[in-house]
Amino acid sequence: MTSDQPTVTLPAQRTCPFSPPTEYEGMRQNAPVSRVTLPGGRTAWALTRHEDVRAMLADPRFSSDRTHPGFPVFVEGQQQIAARFKLSLIAMDPPEHGPARRAVVGEFTVKRMAALRPRIQQIVDEHVDAMLAGPRPADLVRALSLPVPSLVICELLGVPYADHEFFQSRSGRLLRRTEPLAGREQARDELRAYLDDLITEKEREPTDDLLGRQVLKQRETGRGDHADLVSLAVLLLIAGHETTANMISLGTFALLEHPGEREKLEADPDVLPGAVEELLRYFSIVDAVTSRVATEDVEIGGVLIRAGEGVLGLGSSANHDPEVFPRPGELDLRRGDRHHVAFGFGAHQCLGQNLARMELQMVFETLFRRVPGLRLAAPADELPFKDDSNIYGLYELPVTW
Amino acid sequence: MRIVADTSRCVGAGQCVLSEPEVFDQDEEEGTVVVLVERPGGGELEGAREAVGICPSGALSLSED
User: Fold this and answer.
1) How much is the ipTM here?
2) Is pLDDT above 80 for B5?
3) Does domain B2-63 have CATH number 3.60.15.10?
4) d(Cα A28, Cα A116) in Å, to the nearest integer?
């Protein structure tokens, strides 16, 4: 059954941190391609099945243009903010997207990421040392989840980590759905102004880091300009720390709450890569990012989507689709399946996915090896989950040992 | 079975390298797929099949010839 009458309003809240919003299961069973109501009263389509989400994200007839009036957003006014600046990679379509992605994706290859391993291990160890030397309980978010990926992305991009409080607070405000439009605009403007100045410096004197190398590449190829580079820097800085930080907090929380799974991980380090894939699938922290707008009439899952209509590919629903992931609600570190769409799918699939994988593997391995007595220092149902953010996570995670 | 890689479609996600590093690599500049073993056998073929199924851009396929 499909219905043109919206029955569900999005964004929906999770009632349990370990499960997607409960509405998704009903949608997947009754109307896997559903009409939904978005904030402000606009409507869009929502896809809930793994197959349909993948099909849509791989189909070039769906556009990523976040300034398109039909583009579905969870926060009203998001298109206006996007329209004020040059589009970043996540909002580009062909023919612009391919060359723009290729100009930077070489920085994120599996080999390039593996070369960062020793430095990342050092960063993780230093932060675990500092946590162990400090008072108990500690907030894992401040001690580890946020600083590790922030430092890594800063060193990779060539952004001074000393400014982390400035850009972490701006990214946080930008992602919070409850932040008023004016506040979001201000946060975006301040972050852009900061990175604009930084890029200007790198144009004057190119440094040996990702942004400095992009300056040189632009000169070599004649493709892209200053504003493109600022948009890229904003995207990579936000995406590079917020997502991984939330996965570190949630993954640690899940392992603490599932001692049997934690034992699997501690008993056999070979479980680690698969464990990270399973945690990515299980939490699926970005639901709204994999949205598109149809540029022509397209049938998905037997439903006709008309040109100009917005479509949300609900990643957490797709990743809990029992047709692809049996017993989807069970955390199973030995599941051994990388078909999840936690990094999206199609031409826009996460640029930094191999950095994220490696950081998560190294943090979980180090944390549980070095702090075997790690445990929660607050009741699980009282933890402050990011129910109001476009990226799910934890604001705080009190732990002791 | 022969691996067919369409580098014009490839988006450099690197998922194939994770599936089977003996068979796939990435171009250092553009991150796009480099096939190291065109006709993999045994376990490598299984890894290549997984890579084809996971590839986000549809750049990989297996040909019968």
Assistant:
1) 0.96
2) yes
3) no
4) 41
Q: Is the pLDDT of residue A19 over 90?
A: yes
Residue A269 makes CB contacts below 8 A (sequence gap 6+) with A365
- Categorize the per-residue pLDDT at A190 as very low, low, confident or very high, splitting at 50, 70 and 90: very high
Residue B20 exposed, middle or buried by CB count within 10 Å (0-12, 13-18, 19+): buried
Residues on chain A touching B19 (C-beta within 8 angstroms): 338
Q: Name all domains of chain A by residue range, CATH numbers in brackets.
A: 8-400 (1.10.630.10)
Q: Which residue has the tokens 């600022």?
A: A230
SS3 B34: strand
Closest alpha carbon to A35 in A55, A13, A12, A8: A8
DSSP string, A44-84: EEEE-SHHHHHHHHT-TTEE--TTSTT---SSTTHHHHHHT
Given an 8 Å threshold on Cβ–Cβ distance, is A344 in contact with B21?
A: no
Residue B38 touches chain A, beta carbons under 8 Å: no
Residue type at position A84 = R
Residue B39 to chain A, least CA–CA distance (Å): 22
- Segment A31-56, tens digit of pLDDT: 999 999 998 899 999 999 999 999 99
B46 at interface of A, judged by CB pairs closer than 8 A: no
Q: Which residues of A touch B56 (CB under 8 A)?
A: 57-58, 344-347, 349
Number of neighbours of residue A185 by Cβ within 10 angstroms: 16
